[in-house]
Amino acid sequence: MYRTRYLIVILLLFSGKSLFAQAPAWGGGADQQDYSFGFTFQYVNNYFKITKKPNWRAPFYDPVEGKNVTDSLNSISSPGSPGFAVGFLARYRISEHLEARTTPSLIFADRTISYTYITPSQNVDKTVQTTIMDLPLELKLKSDRIQDFRMYLLGGIKYSMAIASKKNPPDIDPLDALVRNKSGYGSYELGLGCDIYFEYFKLSPELKFSNSFGNVLVPENHPFSEPISKLSLHTVTFSLIFE
Questions:
Q1: Is the residue at 175 inside a domain?
Q2: Nearest CA to 41 among 241, 243, 187?
Q3: In sequence order, which residues have a C-beta less than 8 Å from that of residue 198 and are 6 or more positions away?
Q4: Best CA proximity match to 40, nearest among 208, 165, 152
Q5: pTM for this model (two decimals)
Q6: In a domain, 4, yes or no
Q7: What CATH number does the domain containing 155 carry?
Q8: How far apart (Å, rounded) are the C-alpha atoms in residues 45 and 209?
Q9: Residues 180/127, Cβ–Cβ less than 8 Å
């Protein structure tokens, strides 16, 4: 009698794992298809890496007024500027651990350049105001799936195209002039993230870094463009991707 009870208890203990274990979430079946689609929300923070000309400190001489309209510069810097983006995802599975994807996004994020002068009252921040369409092409390298979780690395290139940007009128006051960027430029991207599987969808928090190729500055003859030889755009993006 007691042996029978002990046997039942032992059988329950050994079978408990299979009786009560939770099966991995389906994730909407995204990994079972060669193609899948989704959408993304992004927090963006970008800043410029600034290369200055040898004589960048020199006051700016305005030939129209026939005099210097600024004092000597002390510094030029670019603090990080936040923004946001929305986009969609298109994914193609190459193998179990490798996929190609694109995440075209519309980005609303200004960039800022700060100028400080010998005369503090002349200090000014210039904002580069643009709305950008990003067109990336990336490869995603995935780890093995552990229950409802897997890590990944990604890398690729993207082309950024300005949709709306302001221009300087021909007769603008030099002190009111805007710093302008090229309407199109390329960048390379590196990032990491994780796939989290739910019953009907897959969520991917992701951190990505990108740096532009070449010079994104549009050279113009005014006090805020003239001291700069080159601008490179550096961007940090945190994304939530729903697939």
A1: yes
A2: 241
A3: 25, 27, 28, 148
A4: 208
A5: 0.83
A6: no
A7: 2.40.160.20
A8: 10
A9: no
Banded pLDDT at 12 (limits 50, 70, 90): very low
Task: Read off the pLDDT of residues 88-138 as tens digits, 9 standing for 90 and up.
Answer: 999 999 998 999 999 999 999 989 999 999 999 999 999 987 889 999 999
The residue type of 71 is D
> What is the average pLDDT score of the chain?
87
Stated length of the chain: 243
CB 210 within 8 A of CB 49: no
Nearest residue to 239 via CA among 37, 44, 102: 44
Is 161 inside any structural domain?
yes
- The one-letter code for the residue type at 129 is Q
- In angstroms, the CA 80 to CA 85 distance is 16
- Residue ranges of alpha helices (H) inside the chain are 2-20
Q: For the stretch 141-160, what's the b/e string if a residue is b when 16 or more beta carbons lie within 10 angstroms of its beta carbon?
A: ebeebeebebebebebebeb
Query: Which of the 8 DSSP states describes residue 96?
Result: S
Whether the CB-CB separation of 55 and 61 falls below 8 Å is answered with no
- Give the pLDDT score at 11: 39
Q: Per the domain annotation, does 26 fall within a domain?
A: no
Total of domains in the chain? 1
Parent domain of 159: 38-242
